[in-house]
Amino acid sequence: MSELALRPRSATELVDAAFQVYRRAPLQFMVALALVYVPWLVIRLVFGIDLNVAIDAKSIPPTSTIVTLAVVAISTYAIAGGVITAVARDVYLDLPVNVPEAFRTVATRLVTLIVASVIVVLMLSISFVFFFLPVLYVLSRLAVVRQVIMLEDAGVGRSLSRSFALSVGLKLHTLGTLALIGLLILAVNLGADVLFNIIPSHVVQNVLSTALAVVVGPIIGITETVLYYDLRIRREGFDVEYLVGRDATPPVDPANVAP
Question: Domain range holding 72?
Fold first, then answer.
């Protein structure tokens, strides 16, 4: 994986590396997200949950509905992000890709992922509403919380503090990377929305939106994962540590050595 060698990268190089990771295993990434998003799509279609209609009608749904949708949205976000992180790790470090194993890992960390995701969303929301600009500061410090949970098996508190620590001195670098991939995804979504809105059927719109999320969505989690390793390389020399550990010759058991 010479073009994906572990090394410090600029924001543009990180996004490019993320697309390289995606191109190495596109089917696995899309299957992973489809297993998360399609069941939610089916539930919405079966029970007639259509967010677009509610928004167009400018009606306020019941509080219980809002809470339920929020919980489901955050849980879906946490599961999807966790699975993509695990698969991206395997591809980036040239390990065997195992989507079922990625889901099993997410299952063991699901509560932590959801709780941490809720905290991150609340902190970003509060920062945006009351301070506006400091939301960028909070975003830069909490950018790799999910990656710490998935790849270091950290708890909620440690994942937050660890993300803070990794971003020290690298906040602009982190924001630049997130802004670049965010603008790319935004451009794709805006273009797709223009096309989807031409279609009169809300069912078809939801199906197409889910399909787009399955295809485009992985690049966000992949970028965050590549960024996580970049922060570790810059702050901790992870590239040297990993390569030394991978290339180390395992000790020989004298008992198994033939005389």
Answer: 2-240
**255: in domain:** no
Buried b (16+ CB within 10 A) or exposed e, 216-228: bbbbbbbbbbbbb
DSSP the chain: -GGG-S----HHHHHHHHHHHHHHSHHHHHHHHHHHHHHHHHHHHHTT--HHHHHHTT----HHHHHHHHHHHHHHHHHHHHHHHHHHHHHHTT----HHHHHHHHHHHHHHHHHHHHHHHHHHHHHHHHTSTHHHHHHHHSTTHHHHHHHH---HHHHHHHHHHHTTT-HHHHHHHHHHHHHHHHHHHHHHHHHHTT---HHHHHHHHHHHHHHHTHHHHHHHHHHHHHHHHHHH-HHHHHHHHHHPPPPP-GGGS--
Per-residue pLDDT tens digits for 207-233: 999 999 999 999 999 999 999 999 999
Neighbours of 208 (CB within 10 A): 15
The answer to whether residue 190 sits within a structural domain is yes
Contact 18, 222 (CB under 8 A): yes
Domain assignment present for 258: no
Tokens 């889910």: give the residue. 210
Q: Per the structure, how many domains does the chain have?
A: 1
Q: For the segment 68-78, what is each residue's pLDDT rounded down to a tens digit?
A: 777 788 888 89
Tens of pLDDT, residue by residue over 180-195, are 999 999 999 999 988 8
